[in-house]
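Table S5 (text form). Sequence records supplied for joint modeling of the two-component complex.
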Amino acid sequence: MKTELMTQVTNSIFEVMETMFFMTLEKPKSPPAEIGDAQKTSAITFSGEYSGTIFLSIPEGLLRTMTENLLGQDIDTLTQAHVDGTLKEALNMIAGSALTKVDNTAYMGLGIPEIVPHPEPGTVDDTVVLATTEGVFTAHVRLNSDHSDN
Amino acid sequence: MTFSIMVVDDSLPMRGVLKKTLRAAGYGASEFLEAENGNHALEVMGQHPVDIVITDFNMPRMNGLELIRAMKANALLRKIPVIVVSTEGSLEKVTEIIDEGAAGYVKKPFSPEQIRDLLIELLGEPSDEDGIDDSGDEFDF
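The corresponding structure-token record, covering 291 residues in total, follows.
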């Protein structure tokens, strides 16, 4: 389950970033030694046949560009609530799309996305690193209880 | 003819995206009303006539499905068409949304064309007056 969910999270990130934020992504050939720039993280829980949490961590600069692209307005006219809301809405769309791609016949309840501290290393089951021309960002999946095997 | 369009979503930027999409679809002269959840939307609709509601599904306090049920139980609101725009994509949930009386369903992420096509189906083509758009939006319809 972990592998399938991470695959669909990755596919959904590509879809959401291109459709809603007009950004083209790529997978870095090798993971960066460290992801610079201050990151902001959102988390959303899901429950149903299996349950867990999906995290999305995006550098502040890239997040501001995403907010501008989403709303078609210059960042100077927008507030921190717009920026935080953009991160939460991006994760909401990614999570909903990914869970539907895994199984669209199973009902999975989604929580309300929240801004959270970045997850500590070792507390997540899988991570994907993706890049735009404006920065590198990560998504993480944490499955609850006995669903974290492949 | 211009319209009064209610946008219901707990996400501030998503309400902005929907309004931008509506303007780009030619409904720029319409009046836009906003609410953060179903409860808030019912309060606003109690004070203001609305032609169509575009709502998220997953919201705190009162979600989109509960909003539809409350509107169907209210003689003054039951005929207002409701479009649900949501990340909810399971067949079971979409079927439930339509069975409860939603006039349409659009899955996020969405294209502007999906919203436009549903609005034309439910409200009719925007008039020239509606098409006035000074927002600078760049959707190419």
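Note: The CA atoms of residues 50 and 147 of chain A lie 7 Å apart.
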